[in-house]
């Protein structure tokens, strides 16, 4: 349950992204995405480095622990997983923005967020030979249907859907699946959650600097712009992915990707509370269906978590072994 709650906490942090952008100044979405990765990824790398140094001072490695059970670690070398994960982090932002620009925020969001759990589950099944389970299928279907209802209730996009925009949104969902599975691969190898997230996002932060310099960064010179950049970087990225990595350590990638659909749930509720948005009946139904899928997955995941066997108090002590026999 602790792992499930950590992932849900990460989703709540993710869900504040839209509200932060709405309350902040107008800015180029590509510039905002680059700043988010640069600040958040750089901070994640700094946290991982600090924990590594502290671990070495205590006599530990600071970057690795006992490998997690149930995963296949031999398929992706650690360096490949780190680079592939960083590429997924970088690819997500432009693909997501391209999808929403072509078909509107509602359609682009539902395709990206709705495809991510399905693609993560399929890729996890293909690479790790582990079926996510029937409860995951039902919970994912419910949660995705809820997201679709939310999108249809607030949809203002064009009636004709652009296939290229749909492909971009699906690419965003695939990018999410890629860096989730890459992070899980590092965790299965014994990396700590902070080290795995810090490595992927640190590399992505370094690669995002040229992207940022190629955009208009004038909005960063304003107070609201700086506040938005810090919130998006430190809260929706650094803090969120520390929670995300810690939860991913004990859960399957498919389960984690479905739990993060609490992001649109959070975003919708914040829109009502802070931005005074009004929800039609369809949106309320969508929220209820989405929440039911998350609750179902939360309950079934917590029941499947392995428990440590309690030590036996009635066991007969073993006879001493003579070492000099």
UniProtKB/TrEMBL annotation:
Pfam families: EamA
Domain EamA: start-end pairs: 3-150, 164-298
Transmembrane segments: 32-55, 76-93, 105-127, 134-152, 164-182, 194-213, 225-244, 256-275, 281-299
Transmembrane among keywords: yes
Keywords attached to this entry: Membrane, Signal, Transmembrane, Transmembrane helix
Gene3D superfamilies from the UniProt entry: 1.10.3730.20
Source domain of life: Bacteria
Signal sequence bounds: 1-22
InterPro entries: EamA_dom, EmrE-like
GO cellular component, as recorded: membrane
Family: Belongs to the EamA transporter family.
Protein name in the entry: EamA family transporter
Species per Swiss-Prot/TrEMBL record: Agromyces kandeliae
